[in-house]
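Our consortium's second objective concerns turning raw sequence data into structural hypotheses that experimental partners can test. To show how far this objective has progressed, the report includes one record in full. It was chosen at random from the queue rather than selected for favorable results. The single chain below, 421 residues long, was entered without modification.
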Amino acid sequence: MRKIGFVAGLILFLTLMLGGCSKAEFKDAESIKTTRNEIWDEYVVEESANETRKAEVKDRKMDFGEVTMKYGLQVVGDPDENGYPLYIALHGGGGGDASVNDSQWAAMVTYYKKYLKNGVYVNPRGVRDTWDCHGNPESYPLYDELIENMILYKNVDPNRVYVLGFSAGGDGVYLIAPKMADRFAAANMSAGHHNHTSVLSIRNMPIFLQVGEYDAAYDRNKVTVEYDLLLDEYARAYGGYEHTTYVHFEKGHNFIDNAPAEQVVIADNKAWLENGDRTTTTAKTYAISLLNEYTRDPLPEKVVWDLGNRANLRSVESFYWLSAPYTTNEGVLVASYSKENNSVTIESSTLNGDFAILINEDMLDVFSPITFNTPEGSCTLKLKDRLSSETIRETTKERGDKNYQFLVKVSYSELTEKIGK
């Protein structure tokens, strides 16, 4: 072995020591903020120069595997200090006939946009001519890419991203929103069918459901109200699940959800469903205006996550401030954190695999011990020496969203192992 001189050896020793201590690089919240901003700026520069991304925006189409998602893009008005809201508007049509889907896609160019004052309005074409044209397996990573591209190139505010759709587009909202609820501030589903998809994961994403009173095909009218009542149950059980349902009086499959004028709707949905009570009231049902009332909370203090309803072609494995590999694909996780108590609580879990808790300084005091409460017991961890700029970098790239930059991951298996000792 070649000998190393004292000075060279000292330099090597210090280099190794500094490298090994890189995870203990933060002294206060200000140093974290500075690093997060620097990493975000690096990400924006790098990804904005990505030739694939640039072509996707220029050509208005994105590829994944064997499918292509084409989309229309219109920028309306001026941004505010946070940028533009983004509206992802899904067309009707569905299975079998490409010409029908093409005509419905063309109609969606203006359908919700007519009264839009400002925002980025995107109308994707379903990737296949199937009933779930907006919810094919390849669709979900393409929505991730679309949202990230709009943030990078069109000054979109990630806390004001909305999804809305009519008929087959309403089906799409049911499919997309629960799997990607952490991406959206709110959603509007019109004239669609839930197809029994789970909506457990939308605790923190308000949703509007709209249907015609006489839209009896596939029992759309009844099942819409049944899901309204289901969301009532979830709200009582877990809190959250803000939702409003409009049954449009004496309307069939078509009704007005794209204009500011008030519409006549059923006053009591439960009484209508159970007793045939057709008492009416009026409401403003313009989907854009309804959605504009909401801004996303990217770090809600409580999350309900149904991991049996995931989109496994996505590269994104995180959901709000939780993360799990796609092999963890069964069960429901309920978790919360408390700033006041500097704690995380796993309220319940029926998962078939491990998961992790993602933490940053906006959630908890990362320089003080954090208590983790689980059904197996509690433990306290000191994480300040594990705070890592590399974790910030990894989580920045995962979702392309500045709000989802995290400093440390704590696996559930680590907690149960510590509790069991």
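The partners drew two points from this record. Residues 1-23 have pLDDT under 50 and may be disordered. The CA atoms of residues 46 and 89 lie 29 Å apart. Both points have been shared with the crystallography group to help prioritize constructs.
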